[in-house]
C-alpha cells in the first residue's frame, strides 16, 4: 500500500499498473499532474501476512483540497502482493 501511494505521489503509472491485479487492471492509467498528495494514514489491515493469499488495507490518502478513504483488497500473484480493487468509504 505504501509503495503504491509513493507511486501516486511520483506519478509512476508504470509501477501502479505492474502492481495491479491482471483481472482488474486498466489498460492504461492517466494521473492528474495537478494533484499534490500530502499524506497517507493506514487505518487498518486484515490478513496480508506471509501466511495469507489475500488481505485488505483501510487507509486515508490526502491531497491538497481533499482526501480518499478506501478499503482496498490485495491478493498474491506470483508471490507478490497486487491491488485488486477497493471500496470508497464515507468520511
From TrEMBL:
<dbReference type="InterPro" id="IPR032710">
    <property type="entry name" value="NTF2-like_dom_sf"/>
</dbReference>
<protein>
    <submittedName>
        <fullName>Preprotein translocase</fullName>
    </submittedName>
</protein>
<feature type="domain" description="YchJ-like middle NTF2-like">
    <location>
        <begin position="1"/>
        <end position="86"/>
    </location>
</feature>
<dbReference type="Pfam" id="PF17775">
    <property type="entry name" value="YchJ_M-like"/>
</dbReference>
<dbReference type="InterPro" id="IPR048469">
    <property type="entry name" value="YchJ-like_M"/>
</dbReference>
Amino acid at each position: 500500500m505504501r509503495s503504491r501511494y509513493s507511486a501516486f505521489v511520483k506519478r509512476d503509472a508504470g509501477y501502479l499498473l505492474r502492481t495491479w491485479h491482471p483481472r482488474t487492471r486498466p489498460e492504461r492509467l492517466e494521473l492528474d499532474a495537478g494533484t499534490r498528495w500530502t499524506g497517507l494514514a493506514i487505518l487498518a489491515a486484515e490478513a496480508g501476512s506471509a501466511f495469507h493469499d489475500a488481505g485488505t488495507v483501510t487507509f486515508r490518502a490526502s491531497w491538497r483540497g481533499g482526501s480518499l478513504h478506501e478499503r482496498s483488497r490485495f491478493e498474491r500473484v506470483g508471490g507478490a502482493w497486487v491491488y485488486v480493487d477497493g471500496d470508497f468509504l464515507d468520511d
